[in-house]
Design a protein that fits this description.
Two copies of one chain form a homodimer. Chain A is α/β, with parallel strands linked by helices. Chain A is built from twelve helices and twelve strands. In chain A, strand 6, helix 9 and strand 7 form a beta-alpha-beta unit. In chain A, helix 1 packs across helix 2 and helix 8 packs parallel to helix 9. The model of chain A has no long low-confidence stretch (mean pLDDT about 90). Chains A and B meet through helix 4, helix 5, strand 2, helix 6 and helix 11 of A and helix 4, helix 5, strand 2, helix 6 and helix 11 of B. Chain A binds a DNA duplex (16 and 16 nucleotides) through helix 2 and helix 4.
Amino acid sequence: MKKTFLKDIAQSLQVSKTAVSLVLNNKGDEHKISKDTQKRIVDFARKHNYKANHLARGLSRGKSETIGLIIPDISDIFYAKIASTIEKQAKRLGYTVVFSSSNEDPKDEQEHIRSMLNRQVDGLIIASTQKNQMEMKRLKEMNFPFVLIDRHYPDMDSNFVIVDNHGGGKNMTQHLINLGKKRIGFVSIEPKLDAIKQRLYGYQEALLSNDMPQKKEYIKELCNNNYQHEMKRAIKELVEPPNHVDAIVFSTHYLTASGLRELKAINCKVPDEVAIVSFDELGAFDLVDPAITSITQPVNELGNYAVEFLVDEMENKEKVKVKKKILETHLIIRKSCGT
Amino acid sequence: MKKTFLKDIAQSLQVSKTAVSLVLNNKGDEHKISKDTQKRIVDFARKHNYKANHLARGLSRGKSETIGLIIPDISDIFYAKIASTIEKQAKRLGYTVVFSSSNEDPKDEQEHIRSMLNRQVDGLIIASTQKNQMEMKRLKEMNFPFVLIDRHYPDMDSNFVIVDNHGGGKNMTQHLINLGKKRIGFVSIEPKLDAIKQRLYGYQEALLSNDMPQKKEYIKELCNNNYQHEMKRAIKELVEPPNHVDAIVFSTHYLTASGLRELKAINCKVPDEVAIVSFDELGAFDLVDPAITSITQPVNELGNYAVEFLVDEMENKEKVKVKKKILETHLIIRKSCGT
DNA sequence: CTGAAAGCGCTTACAG
DNA sequence: CTGAAAGCGCTTACAG
């Protein structure tokens, strides 16, 4: 099966390449090409399974119809889900998506951004390390379409769609307070990301507005690369006297899993001795012992808005205002906080 | 910041585009371009942040340095992990990856394959629906590099890297038998996929080689789109008399999760009343109540081999023989089978 | 209504 | 050692 090119069709049908290209791009009517010719071209193309070479088309049109997705880690279920909805939505609108994982490394992230630009993606969706503000500024100056997801740069005016981390942090803490918990710990990674900071602030605000004491010792911030190791000690310090917390807020799904492992290891009963609540979920959190009360993020919405914003900007470059969206989270109550 | 093109460099430096292109592609020495000229070109390029337009380069060279990944569903943790290692490995070798989810729809899969060909990917990694043998044949005839992962076409001679599903199914069943289980059920999706069939055969072989009865009623095959609904009944029928199984083998991670939910719903104690074992895992299977004994798949190896095989074929088209690899699974013993 | 021609930004034989 | 030129496969003003 030989490959068919535009030229082949033109020659076989004794028409110009122009005509073929026009017709196949649905501009036949616009250019008043006879219905008959159009039909012949379309039929021939279909029969020979002709499809335009995207590289050539892209080069010629100055757009590739692909969008780049840069995330910390595609194997994290949260990002995997986002990637899934982004892909679906992008496909619907005629775009393919190429992805790259930054592994939270700003240098890698920058490299991927540039590499994608070379590859002539038409736009970028980025869940950034939040350490590349200069690079983002550069994109803005180039007038290059992009939208930040999950993590944004608070000082920068750009498209983004994120989640209400502050509200989520507050709600999960309030839930604990409503259940009568008095000494509520907070386990997090180092709050380098605004999203993580906001969860902490939410926690603190809930405490504050309920006139509960804020103790520095209740807050454990683990190193992102080494949290599994540090978790052991953090949990111990929280659970044992003098802190002796009766509840723990975990700021990410993997911290929850890790923390629960430690709690089990030291035979601390959840929720009887300590209640736990998780920001975001892992695969089978409803089956875990005990089923884990979690804040849930609207992944689909997030992905859909991201693509919508991006395509909007790609297709009407000049007129578009910066678009921002903050999505609400949702508390799913299960067993890990008791009743 | 204006974009720099090859032409700009050539003009600024008063050399030919040829020279610039050659030097920037590390063919300066080969073409005996003076060290001095080379240095001037490289410096200028670096200073102005020049990067070749990949579309143009691709069109000209006839390769895009991208590989296409087609999987059933990127939001499934198993494929997300594979995607992650494939991306890492591909990047190391200078390739970008574009992905598409088929959602188990053969038509979609075919469309994605063709769309990727139009986009001029250099090779394809496919976890196929296994209903597109014709399309795969077509790829072979075109001499287009591709490797099948996770699912292969048993009747077709092509590159693949899969997992020993038969062995896995056998081991997990044998584990149950070793623990003294007598009536072992098997819950699966419809065995349209060879991988799923093999797991069943493995189960059957374990039974056979231990002189245990094979009962048709012990085997439940659910419809892939509707398994959550059908699970309720399947579990009931297995657990209640007359079948009254004392163990269940689940052939996929999501079936395990779903089945366990039903078992809990009808208050059937695991592992005391019925032991369960899972082929493949979900995020927190070690934390589930009870922690789930599972067959684990070597995702990283799988991804690495896939890329290795593919790149091998892409870069030495003619000489390469078909490469096949079957990876061993691993049984992780936890609590769900008792002791 | 239709075609010849230029152009997208590269790479690479080919000729000196 | 180096450059002019053709070519990759399309798209699209432009001219009739």
